[in-house]
Amino acid sequence: MNPANLKDRLEARQGDITGLSVDAIVNAANTSLLGGGGVDGAIHRAAGPELLAECRTLGGCPTGEARLTRGYRLPAGRVIHTVGPVYRGRPEDSRLLASCYACSLTLARDHGLRTLAFPAISCGVYGYPIDEACKIAVDVCAGFLEAHEVPEKVIFMLFSAAHLDVYTRCLTARVG
Ligand code: ADP
Fold first, then answer.
1. Measuring CA to CA, which residue among 104, 166, 173 is closest to residue 141?
2. Is the pTM of this model over 0.90?
3. What per-residue confidence (pLDDT) applies to 1?
4. CATH number for region 3-175
5. For residue 164, how far is its CA from the centre of ligand 1 (angstroms)?
């Protein structure tokens, strides 16, 4: 895969991830998969109660792993639920956050999901510093896209202008 192509396949935008018409959006869930605040709450509100009903059948998800559901009333066809680490400054935090991105990308590839959008996993109530988290997100996604044709496109959907700024700088440094 040539680098110019990689640049077109990774994009940072600002806005609400629940409004995106992509093959799958990623949810920053908790281990119960039964809903919560932040982006998790927004996704469940927009998807409707059928999403919670399907999540109940999954029996939770360990930190660093990911699970796939349908998108129900969302414009996105599927939701990939992943559980980021609560930030405590331990070496395993970065390993677990990288694993969230890798597991989500692998699920998307295995299910032929061509367009995928991520929020800033763990960067809300879980307290991960945005600069460190962003570098992990961009490194893992760029590496995966270099190695695989699916997903074709990854969007980082940031809620704040400050987070968009961090991602834009990091993407420019990694892919130009
Ligand atoms: P975590 O528990 O993994 O930290 P949060 O939901 O608290 O998850 O926050 C993760 C990130 O998602 C934060 O940067 C937050 O600002 C952002 N966020 C919250 N709501 C939305 C939304 N509707 N679309 C995109 N990002 C969102």
1. 104
2. yes
3. 52
4. 3.40.220.10
5. 13
